[in-house]
Amino acid sequence: MIDTHIHLFDPTRPQGVPWPPKSNTLIYKPTYPSHFRALATKHGVVGAVMVECSPLFEDNQWVLDVIAKDTVMTGMIGNLEPADKDFGKQLEGLRKNPLYLGIRYGDLWGRSIHAQSTNPAFLAGLKELASHGLVLDTANPKAELMEDILRISDKIPNLRIVIDHLPKMEPQPGDATLAELHKRPQIFVKISAVLRKSGDKVPQDVAFYKDRLDRLFAAFGEDRVLYGSDWPNSEPLGTYSQVFGIVQRYFSGKGAKIAEKYFFRNSQKAYRWIKRDPKQTLA
């Protein structure tokens, strides 16, 4: 199994970190691949993709340096500004490292994908990203972002796009939006950030989440859904075991073939991550 959404950071660095804030005392601490290993591998998760949690350009290289030291890390999604005049040069330098799989962009770090979705320079940057076989992750799903993703996908049909955390979107995407997303095989979705509160509790019964998961699974199908924990950002709602357990029970109920796609095969299609350990394959 491959976890396609974890974050790495170290607040003790001299320059600190842009995220998480000090007020988030549960996760404001060094988070490295070794910490992920200790929590995830006991569940059979043998690899992970790190997703950016900093807008600082130099943190792209910081993450590459960190993940190079641990073979549990199969790649990273970085942070670059596609409309920037230096985007091509920056991307060229980073993509030489096979662990650099793409970039993340959305309503994050004061940016607006809606404002950029009609910007010729932004679209040119994404076309360059696609030309190198790299992926675009989105951030913070909402109705407007869904429409923007459809627009970008129509303009750059060879760009692979991964929508993160769709189970937590409120309100959930409308039927018409899901129908349009269904038509585009290059758009994937992470069934991530699944846990949510009901009153003052976080239900651990998969039945509580089933209707929402059923609807997303029906829209994207068995070949375009991915596992992502959002660790350690997930910890305020549940432990890694609890986050993993909900989706493991849900997808196990669909049979071994579909579970295998969700936890492993689809991540290869979406991210083209790098195998670094013999365990990162199917028997």
Describe it.
There is one protein chain. The protein contains ten helices and eight strands. With 283 residues, the chain is an alpha/beta fold. The chain has one domain (2-271): Alpha-Beta Barrel (TIM Barrel). It has an eight-stranded parallel sheet. Strand 6, helix 7 (175-182) and strand 7 (187-191) form a beta-alpha-beta unit. Helix 8 packs across helix 9.
Summarize the structure.
The protein is of the alpha/beta class.
Q: Strand-residue fraction? A: 5-15%
Spans with pLDDT under 50 lasting ≥5 residues?
none
Q: What name does the CATH topology carry? A: TIM Barrel
Tally of discrete structural domains: 1
Count of helices? 10
CATH hierarchy: architecture: Alpha-Beta Barrel
SS-based structural class?
alpha/beta
Which helices and strands, and how do they pair?
Elements: E1 2-6, H1 33-40, E2 47-51, H2 58-67, E3 73-78, H3 87-95, E4 100-106, H4 113-116, H5 120-131, E5 135-139, H6 143-155, E6 160-163, H7 175-182, E7 187-191, H8 206-220, E8 225-227, H9 240-252, H10 256-271
Parallel strand pairs: 1-2, 2-3, 3-4, 4-5, 5-6, 6-7, 7-8
Helix pairs in contact: 8-9
List keywords for this structure.
single chain; 283 residues; alpha/beta; TIM Barrel; eight-stranded parallel sheet; 8 strands; globular
